[in-house]
Specification:
alpha/beta, 17 helices, 429 residues, Glycerol-3-phosphate (1)-acyltransferase
């Protein structure tokens, strides 16, 4: 019941939190079949939230067992379809044995044609790479066939989760689903040699997941790859709406750039890095944003009028929504130690704080009984979203306005430098 209540509320929060949400090749997920979504794990829990809200079915999740230490946490997590997986380093070998109960629950769920999401790497690190996969996905998929011989098939869907900036609000998330791997293809070998059957399955799963993930092989190349991503995005400016999309184009475009960086000879890579560094240093000197298109994106007079006449709405939305949003940011800033947890905690705390705040405000307004106050409280979430869009429009307007003060020679140099960088990149794509 809690899952059904939280899901639509979380969906609204995610629509606000992310600027763009791409779920591509969803048709690769079989319907009314036993399915495992095997995904990578770049954040603590943003990716499970997105999938739970935007797929057309309830999901079960495997999460770290040490989150279930208190009975109230255990109750809430189980109510949200979360199942504990214990690791020896978390609570010792005694609790690892409790995984058998979780596996049995997964076997039963698959037998009932449910969908389970497994974060196949087993730990979370904020990087554009695929880490070694744990064996749990194979154990559950093949174990379900072993427990239920009449189970026709288990479909394991390789799932690639990618963020433009996993730790930031109003970033983009790109999730792609590959054709399912059939567990039966490995079952005969699993019966003959459990370990080898799971190992072969896991290796194939790794290959299929890699096809849907932006991977920069060498961490030393991360800065160059990020600079190229930013430059390329300036050529693909997207409107605000729609927020939710089914296209895989942005993902595979950036994946192509990452592959080019991986395959580029070292000397060419160093030369290109020097050019990109010089370009972005010049942007900073001229007080231009790093994602500047170097071209005016808005009609100056029209944009100014929008900012002028929408200013009261902005102030109303900002003031009315300040407390819960500020509280969420304060908790994320002061309590979160690892970057992988920052955005998920901000999202979760923000949603919880906002719900409590809105309900209290609505109750107080109803007690007061003033129609204008009641209307203002009801409009509060809409005004908050308008304030968010207003803020983004303002920064676009400010960036355009700043171009008026850039020396034409500097602007021409930036454009030529940008074209040269992209031309060099295209040699390797």
């Amino acid at each position: 019941m809690i899952y059904s209540i939280v899901r639509p509320l979380a969906r609204i929060a995610i629509f606000v939190f992310f600027r763009k949400i791409y779920l591509s090749n969803v048709e690769n997920i079989p319907k009314n079949k036993p399915v495992i979504l095997a995904a990578n794990h770049p954040t603590a829990f943003s990716e499970p939230c997105v999938l739970a809200c935007f797929l057309d079915r309830p999901l079960y999740f495997l999460v770290r067992g040490n989150l279930f230490t208190k009975s109230i946490y255990s109750f809430l997590l189980h109510s949200l379809n979360m199942l504990p997986v214990y690791r020896k380093k978390d609570r010792g070998y005694t609790y690892v044995k409790e995984n058998y109960s979780t596996f049995e629950t997964c076997f039963d769920a698959l037998y009932r044609n449910k969908t389970i999401m497994i974060l196949a790497e087993g730990n979370t690190i904020h990087e554009k790479r695929l880490r070694p996969l744990q064996k749990g996905t194979g154990r559950i998929a093949l174990g379900a066939l072993e427990k239920y011989p009449d189970l026709e098939e288990v479909y394991i869907v390789p799932t690639g989760v990618n963020f433009t900036y996993a730790d930031q609000v109003r970033s983009e998330v790109m999730i792609d689903f590959g054709p399912p791997i059939l567990a039966r293809d490995y079952y005969a070998q699993f019966q003959e040699n459990n370990s080898q059957g799971i190992a072969d399955f896991t290796e194939n799963l790794k290959d299929k997941m890699s096809e849907r993930i932006i991977i920069v092989d060498d961490p030393a190349d991360d800065p160059l790859a990020e600079q190229l991503f930013v430059l390329d995005r300036t050529l693909r400016q997207k409107p605000i709406f729609p927020i939710f999309n089914r296209t895989a184009s942005p993902l595979f475009h950036e994946k192509t750039i990452a592959t080019a960086v991986n395959e580029m000879p070292s000397d060419d890579k160093r030369a290109l890095k020097q050019k990109t560094d010089t370009y972005f240093q010049k942007l900073e000197q001229l007080d231009l944003p790093k994602d500047s298109t170097l071209e005016k994106q808005t009609n100056f007079f029209g944009s100014f009028l929008i900012l002028l006449f929408a200013l009261p709405l902005f102030f109303a939305g900002y003031i009315l929504n300040f407390l819960p949003i500020r509280l969420a940011k304060f908790i994320a800033d002061t309590r979160v130690k690892y970057i992988e947890f920052y955005a998920p905690v901000l999202l979760a705390v923000g949603l919880g704080a906002y719900l409590i705040y809105f309900i209290l405000a609505l109750v107080i307004s109803l007690v007061v009984g003033n129609l204008w106050i009641i209307s203002l409280v009801i409009a509060m979430p809409f005004l908050g979203y308008i304030a968010l869009l207003y803020r983004e429009h303002y920064f676009t307007f400010a960036a355009d306005y700043q171009l008026n003060w850039v020396n034409p020679e500097d602007l021409s140099w930036l454009k030529n430098q940008k074209e040269g960088i992209l031309r060099e990149l295209n040699r390797w794509i």
